[in-house]
From TrEMBL:
GO terms for biological process: response to antibiotic. Pfam families: ABC2_membrane. Residues 23-249 form the ABC transmembrane type-2 domain. One of its GO terms (molecular function) is ABC-type transporter activity. GO terms for cellular component: ATP-binding cassette (ABC) transporter complex. This is Transport permease protein. The chain crosses the membrane at residues 23-45, 57-80, 101-128, 140-163, 170-190, 228-247. The lineage of its organism: Bacteria, Bacillati, Actinomycetota, Actinomycetes, Pseudonocardiales. It comes from the Bacteria. It comes from Kutzneria buriramensis.
Length: 257
């Protein structure tokens, strides 16, 4: 079995699970829309702060909500692995000829599909609310790629943590502990020039901020493609590292059985 066919089989299993749980799918699609509407109204006065140069706040916020959607989706992805552990399915998969990387990439591929669907809905709502971006199709594509990369790298780390803790409640606490600091040490809601110096420093190593900044830069009228390439490159390298960590965690799990 090739890696591509194994990934297809693994992702198809998870996509079928999404289709069979319509309420889960509906909630996951509606949630980021609610975020955009609530946060867009709550923080709209930010655009009147001296020094804010992001223009219309809803346009500034949209890439942040997209990246945050990918972040949260990735954080919860490890729950699929814990469910497979509890059902005994992960043990059978690891004992099968299927590559461990394919076992990991399956739920990540399913997650990427859902996140892209969420992103398209958010963009449509933003357009209805009067948001437009000068970057055109290339800008939208960069935004979708940056969100997918972020979501998959966080998802890989979530799966690595899942096979270590093996408890959903522990995973939930750990994810909540991590995602809020990542969110508020990025430019998702606020321009960094208006943030304290230590937050500006932390944002330089924050993958959520890389995703947000890549999207915003690509959607601008005069994008700096070198800077965009740097952000996407860093996300890709970190994704590769996260996949390596996750596959090592799966090997350790198999040896412990």
């Amino acid at each position: 079995m090739t890696l591509a066919s194994a990934v297809w089989l693994s992702s198809a299993r998870h996509i079928r699970g999404v289709v069979r749980s319509p309420w889960t799918t509906i909630i996951s699609l509606v949630q980021p829309i609610v975020w955009l509407l609530i946060f867009g109204s709550l923080f709209s006065a930010v655009s009147r702060i001296p020094g804010f140069t992001g223009g219309m706040y809803l346009a500034f916020l949209t890439p942040g909500v997209l990246a945050m959607t990918g972040l949260y989706a990735g954080g919860w992805n490890g729950m699929y692995t814990i469910i497979d552990i509890d059902n005994g399915l992960l043990d059978r998969l690891l004992a099968s000829p299927m590559q461990r990387l394919a076992i990991l990439l399956g739920p990540l591929a399913q997650q990427a599909v859902v996140v892209l669907a969420q992103s398209i809905l958010i963009l449509c709502l933003a357009w209805v609310k009067g948001v437009s971006f000068a970057g055109g199709v290339p800008g939208y594509l960069v935004m979708l790629v940056s969100v997918a990369l972020l979501s998959c790298l966080i998802g890989a780390l979530s799966n690595a943590l899942a096979v270590i803790v093996r408890k959903i409640n522990v995973l939930v606490v750990a994810v909540q502990f991590l995602v809020l600091p990542l969110t508020f040490t990025s430019s998702a809601y606020m321009q960094l020039n208006l943030a304290p110096g230590w937050i500006q420093a932390v944002s330089k190593v924050n993958p959520l901020n890389w995703s947000v900044e890549a999207a915003r830069e690509a959607l601008g009228a005069s994008p700096d493609w070198g800077q965009i390439g740097l952000y996407l490159g860093m996300l890709s390298v970190l994704l590769g590292f996260a996949l390596w960590v996750a596959t090592r965690a799966f090997r350790s799990y198999l040896r412990s059985q």
